TrEMBL record:
Leader sequence residues: none
Name the record gives this protein: 3-hydroxy acid dehydrogenase/malonic semialdehyde reductase
EC number(s) stated in the UniProt entry for this protein: 1.1.1.-, 1.1.1.381
Keywords for this protein: Oxidoreductase
Top-rank taxon, per record: Bacteria
Lineage: Bacteria, Pseudomonadati, Pseudomonadota, Alphaproteobacteria, Acetobacterales
Similarity annotation: Belongs to the short-chain dehydrogenases/reductases (SDR) family.
Entry GO MF terms: oxidoreductase activity, acting on the CH-OH group of donors, NAD or NADP as acceptor
Length: 253
């Protein structure tokens, strides 16, 4: 198969964790991938590892102008995106709502909500015009199950849930699929390091557990994308076996 005839995926946040694993897996599946993120050197390392099937494309998803320019700024042969993986996202802090840094809240909103809204709005018209495409979003169990310190992070992932369901409503009758992938505890990425800014605390999150891995997420995305065209996986939630919802909290003081 020539490069030009391979379907195109665009993965946001391809510089680490899930995004890197998803990029590698989609390439194995026969896609060429526009790998995006802010850390340019990592994108180039991924392109060196994977060859010409990766187009390294530095992108801050919170930079609205850069995201809106995508349909015309991407090289001509890479503009018809078949699969958009809206993976870039982050949690910052675990403080109670009244103790958090408001700038951290703003960053989560701009990235986890603003980023996915902008990339979707930029690339969806092309998909509609071609009547072909798949939007994959990285939600989270945090979007459905609250826990102390999740506050704006959890709310931003609840947005993903409603956004995907509403996109499905708008897209009814078109050959464009929409999926919310919602994992629970997952190690092997930089998620907890970014959230806690402390390597020891980040490691402690996974102590004595067997968490999900980025490869588990990538294999799930690969299965979803490979489902027959008549089948849309709306929402898929997974947790490691060592994790479960733990009931409602009661104050007994
Ligand atoms: P990582 O921290 O390992 O990766 C996050 C990625 O997002 C990086 O590639 C980072 O790239 C990118 N990113 C962050 N901010 C921006 C930005 N402004 N513009 C572009 N890219 C950005 O985390 P994970 O791989 O674990 O997480 C991926 C997604 O999965 C996130 O949306 C997260 O909320 C979600 N998730 C994670 C879970 C977990 O337990 N790990 C569980 C459930 C959901 P760069 O810094 O180079 O820009
Ligand atoms: C990441 C999972 O439980 O840390 O979205 O919020 S959790």
């Amino acid at each position: 198969m020539t490069l030009d005839s391979m379907p195109v995926a665009l993965v946001t946040g391809a510089t680490a964790g899930f995004g890197t694993a998803i990029t590698r897996k989609l390439i194995k599946d026969g896609y060429r991938v526009i790998a995006t993120g802010r850390r340019e050197e990592r994108l180039h390392a991924l392109a060196k590892e994977q060859g010409e099937a990766v187009l390294p494309w530095p992108l801050d998803v919170a930079d609205n102008a850069a995201v809106r320019a995508l349909p015309t700024s991407l090289p001509a042969g890479w503009r018809n995106v078949d699969v958009l993986v809206n993976n870039a996202g982050l949690a910052l802090g675990l403080q109670k709502a009244w103790e958090t840094n408001i700038d951290d809240w703003e960053t989560m909103i701009a990235t986890n909500i603003g980023g996915i809204v902008e990339t979707t709005r930029a690339l969806l018209p092309g998909m509609v015009q071609r009547n072909r495409g798949h939007l994959i979003f990285l939600g989270s169990t945090a979007g459905r199950y609250p826990y102390p310190g999740s506050n704006v992070y959890g709310a931003s992932k609840a947005f993903v849930d409603q956004f995907t369901q509403n996109l499905r409503s708008d897209l009814l009758g078109k050959s464009i699929r929409v999926t919310n992938v919602a994992p629970g505890l997952c190690g092997g990425s930089e998620f907890s390091l970014v959230r806690l800014k402390d390597g020891n605390k980040a490691e402690a999150v996974y102590e004595n557990t067997s968490p999900l891995t980025p490869e588990d997420i990538a294999n799930t995305v690969s299965w979803i994308v490979g489902c027959p065209p008549h089948m849309n996986v709306n929402y898929i939630e997974m947790m490691p076996t060592c994790q479960a919802a733990a009931g409602l909290a009661v104050d007994r003081t």
